């Protein structure tokens, strides 16, 4: 009878697999693949990016800027009015320019009335310009 007890014990342990070392094995495999993998070098190209500093731009190549101030308008930093802005936009012959030369930068202080903002915007659009809004964050 003692013999049967041993056989039953062996049979109950015969189907079990020890999983204690699986975590260690997985960790070692991860390290192996990290070390053995070849690292791919990506090829790039050199690009010369603009500085973004408006002082370095050529004044002749600069896009016109219209600033809506609380009490008036400015064209490239010079005080002006809406009639003069319309005249300058007409002189530029914007519909016959390439798209990059048709861009007019429009900047505004937050307290400007919507009516003046709309008048300047529509003057640029009627002259054939493309409005670019300047956002200072």
Give Rg in angstroms: 37 Å
Major β-sheet strand ordering? 3-2-1-4-5
Shape: elongated
**What profile does the largest beta sheet have?**
5 strands, mixed
Helix content: 25-40%
CATH class of the domain at 62-133: Alpha Beta
- What is the strand tally? 5
Distance between the termini: 90 Å
Strand content: 5-15%
Unreliable residue runs: none
Just name the CATH architecture of the domain at 62-133: 2-Layer Sandwich
**The CATH topology of the domain at 62-133, please?**
Nucleotidyltransferase, domain 5
Nearest-integer average pLDDT: 78
User: How many H/I helical runs?
Assistant: 4
Going by helix content, strand content and strand pairing, the class is alpha/beta
The string of secondary-structure elements, in order, is HHEEEHEHE
Keywords:
alpha/beta, Nucleotidyltransferase, domain 5, about 35% helix, about 15% strand
Produce the secondary structure layout.
Blueprint: H1 2-14, H2 22-36, E1 65-68, E2 73-75, E3 78-80, H3 82-91, E4 103-108, H4 114-126, E5 130-133
Parallel strand pairs: 1-4, 4-5
Antiparallel strand pairs: 1-2, 2-3
Describe, in plain words, how this protein is organized in 3D.
With 137 residues, the chain is α/β, with parallel strands linked by helices. It has a domain at 62-133: Nucleotidyltransferase, domain 5. Helices cover 37% and strands 15% of the residues. It is built from 4 helices and 5 strands; from the N terminus they run H-H-E-E-E-H-E-H-E. It has helices spanning 2-14, 22-36, 82-91, 114-126; strands at residues 65-68, 73-75, 78-80, 103-108, 130-133. It has a 5-stranded mixed beta sheet with strand order 3-2-1-4-5. It starts with a helix and ends with a strand.
């Amino acid at each position: 009878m003692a013999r049967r007890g041993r056989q039953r014990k062996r049979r109950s342990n015969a189907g079990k697999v020890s999983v204690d070392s699986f975590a260690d094995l997985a960790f070692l495999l991860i390290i192996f693949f990290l070390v053995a993998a070849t690292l791919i070098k990506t090829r790039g190209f050199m690009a010369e990016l603009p500085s973004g500093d408006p002082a370095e731009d050529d004044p002749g190549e600069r896009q016109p800027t219209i600033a809506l101030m609380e009490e008036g308008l400015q064209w490239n930093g010079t005080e002006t009015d809406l009639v003069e802005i319309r005249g300058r936009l007409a002189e530029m012959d914007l519909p016959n320019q390439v798209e990059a030369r048709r861009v007019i930068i429009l900047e505004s202080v937050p307290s400007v009335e919507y009516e003046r903002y709309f008048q300047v915007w529509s003057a640029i659009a009627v002259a054939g310009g493309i409005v670019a809004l300047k956002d200072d964050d």
